[in-house]
Write a structure and sequence with these properties.
Largest sheet: 2 strands, antiparallel
Order of helices and strands: HHHHHHHHHHHHHEEH
Helix content: over 70%
Number of strands: 2
Distance between the termini: 27 Å
Mean pLDDT: 83
Strand content: under 5%
Length: 326
């Protein structure tokens, strides 16, 4: 326990880590503020501007021509079953047509902004993990630490636990603040959640906390393996960009199932839709006539991520035990 407290103190006092942890708090809150602004109710000025644009549209000479054409061939404008008497009402612009803004939707927020917050927190915690131990390798202090505690496995596990606990605490606190703010925002706008939605939201956040904490552990494990912050960051960048492109180049249309973002979101959200050409159905003329989407289950996404973490952790432990420490 004493060694764990020492590692937590060392982690807390790193300036770079302090900035990363500050970003963990600020960025999700900025996302929440942006969501509140983008879904804000229409003001009187917005409605007045929309009415003005509708009036300008109604004064255009081509509107009468379009209505006349519609009355001549209503099926071309209103679809099968359209009647000429409906043309004037259907084609006359109203101010509501100029008011377009998404309303606050908690379910959409869970899969959109909420998922983005978890993804960003996971990435930041990976940076925390690699920055924390990368400093020890870059400065050579790792060898000094092993003089006081020569049991390498214990040192590895203690540092890993410090990063994991930090990630879990950050995830719990920040996501709780995020959704508390979302609940207050929804209440202020009289937006009610569907039955069972809050249960689904909290289940998503629980998996998000696991992803955030494990993300920090993964960043730590890779840096203990490579003994270099730069090498770990390069690998992260390569996997996120070049890795996905390589999978697409090899697997083609089937690649969506095996890229990292799809599996990550499947685990966090409890399932995630992806494009699968083998699921498409075609009409006799060769046109796509069915749904080409498949849903990746949460368990499959979690297993995919677990394999990556287990392999990286195993290699890191092996390297710590076998390689010389400069």
């Amino acid at each position: 326990m004493r060694l764990l407290l020492v590692e937590l103190t060392r982690l807390r006092w790193r300036r770079a880590i302090f900035l990363l942890l500050l970003a963990c708090v600020v960025v999700p809150l900025v996302l929440l503020v942006g969501q509140a602004w983008n879904t804000r109710p229409f003001s009187e000025a917005d409605i007045a501007s929309a009415k003005e644009m509708a009036a300008q549209e109604m004064s255009q000479p081509y509107l009468e021509e379009q209505i006349a054409d519609c009355e001549a061939t209503p099926e071309n404008y209103l679809g099968p079953g359209g009647v000429a008497t409906d043309c004037a009402q259907a084609m006359t612009p109203t101010y509501e047509n100029y008011l377009y803004r998404d309303a606050l939707d908690l379910e959409a927020m869970r899969t959109d902004v909420g998922a983005a917050a978890i993804t960003i927190l996971t990435g930041l915690m990976m940076l925390v993990g690699t920055t924390f131990v990368g400093h020890d390798w870059n400065t050579g202090s790792m060898s000094n630490q092993l003089l006081f505690e020569p049991r390498r496995l214990r040192v590895w596990l203690t540092k890993a636990l410090a990063v994991f606990v930090t990630g879990a605490v950050v995830g719990i606190v920040v996501l709780a603040l995020f959704w508390a703010g979302a609940a207050i925002l929804a209440s202020s706008r009289d937006v009610s959640a569907a039955p069972g939605l809050w249960t689904t939201i909290w289940e998503t956040q629980a998996r998000g906390v696991v992803a955030i904490a494990v993300g920090g552990l993964l960043g730590y494990s890779l840096t203990m393996l490579f003994r270099s912050t730069v090498a770990t960051l390069s690998l992260m960048f390569g996997v996120s960009i070049a890795g996905s492109l390589l999978v697409v180049a090899i697997l083609g249309d089937a690649a969506s199932r095996w890229v990292l973002p799809t599996n990550f979101l499947a685990f966090v959200l409890g399932g995630f839709p992806y494009y699968d050409s083998s699921a498409c159905s075609y009409s006799p003329d060769g046109m796509v006539s069915g749904n080409c989407e498949q849903t990746l289950p949460m368990v499959d996404g979690g297993l995919f991520l677990m394999v990556i973490v287990v392999v990286a952790t195993g290699l890191s432990l092996w390297s710590t035990q076998r390689r010389d420490v400069p």
